Amino acid sequence: MEKIGVVFYIEGMGNEKKALERALAKTAENLRNEKLVKVKRVSVEDVIENDVEELKYSGMIEAELEGDLEGIVRAVLKYAPAVVEVLGPGRLEIDAKRLMKVMGEISLFMGQLMEKFGGLVAYPSLEEIPLPKIGYTEEELEDFILDERNIKYMFIIEAFGEDEEEIKKTMLKAFFIEGCKINKIAIKGEEKDGRYYTLVAAELLSPFETMFQLNAKYAPVAISIEEPQIVDITATELQNALTDLAGFVYELVHRPIKKKLIEKDTFRFSLQK
C-alpha cells in the first residue's frame, strides 16, 4: 500500500499557561509513541498570549507523519489537527471497497461522537430553494464519472420530520446544497411518538471531497460506492477532506468548553447591565 506523508498542525488553547504547556507536552509525547503511523518528527512551539481570543493562551504542535490511508485517517480522528498538510504522493488510486471500509469507520466514529455531543448538520431555511433534478441518463452519468471525476454512491441515513413528503423535500434540497447530484431517492418509515421516522436511501453523485464530508457530517447507516471501482484522489482533495474531518471532530469534542464560555460571557454581561 502506498504511503501518505502528512504534517499535522495541532492547536491547543487555554486560560492557564502552565496547564496548556503540560497538555501540549503530553500530546507531543503521545504522538512520538504513536503506533497508527510512522512519526518522523514532532515539535512544540512556545505558548503565546492571545490579545483577542476567548481563551488567553495558545500553542501549536507540528508533527510529520507517514502511513497508509487507514492509519492517517485514524490519526486525524484521534488528534483532530487544525490543519492537515498532505506532502505526497500527488495522486492516489484507491480501490472502492477499501475506501468504503474507511468511510464506514469514519461514520461509526462520528456517529458515536454525535450521540454524545449532538449533530453537525444545520442548514438555513430551505423553503426558497427549488427542488433539484432527480434522475439522469446513462450518458449523463458516464460524463459525470469520467469527465467530472464524480463518484456514484448509495447513501442511507436515518431522518425524522412531520411526514414522508416533508422529509423527502428537505433531504433533496440538503443534498443539493451539499453539492450532490441526485439520481434516485427512496424513503421508508413509520410514525412514532408523534413524529415520522424514516430511512432515506439516495443514489448520489459528487466529487470525492463532498462524499467524504457528507459521510462525516451525517454518519450514514450505510454507504456503498458503485462507480468507479478505482477512485482517483489528488493530494489537494485528500488534504481538504482530512482537514474538514478533523474540524468536525474538533467542533464536537469542544462543544462543552464553548458552552461554558458562552454561559460565562452571558453571566458577565448580565452583571454589567
Tell me what the structure shows.
This protein is of the alpha+beta class. It folds into 2 domains: 4-92 and 253-272, Alpha-Beta Plaits (2-Layer Sandwich); 120-228, Alpha-Beta Plaits. It is built from 8 helices and 11 strands. Strands 1, 2, 3, 4 and 5 form a 5-stranded antiparallel beta sheet that branches. A 4-stranded antiparallel beta sheet has the order 8-9-7-10. A two-stranded antiparallel ribbon has the order 6-11. The radius of gyration is 21 Å and the shape is globular.
List its traits:
273 residues, Alpha-Beta Plaits, globular, disordered C terminus
Which fold name is given in CATH as the topology of the largest domain? Alpha-Beta Plaits
Shape annotation: globular
Instruction: Kindly provide the radius of gyration, computed on alpha-carbon positions and rounded to a whole number of angstroms.
Output: 21 Å
- Report strand %: 25-35%
Q: Helix tally?
A: 8
What ranges have pLDDT less than 50 throughout 5 or more consecutive residues? 262-273
What's the mean pLDDT score?
90
Q: Indicate the CATH class of the largest domain.
A: Alpha Beta
Distance between the termini: 62 Å
* Whole-number count of domains: 2
**CATH-derived architecture of the largest domain:** 2-Layer Sandwich
Major sheet attributes? 5 strands, antiparallel
Instruction: Look at the helices and sheets and give the structural class.
Output: alpha+beta
Q: N-to-C SSE series?
A: EHEEEHEEHHEHEEHEEHH
The count of DSSP E runs of length 2 or more, i.e. the number of strands, is 11
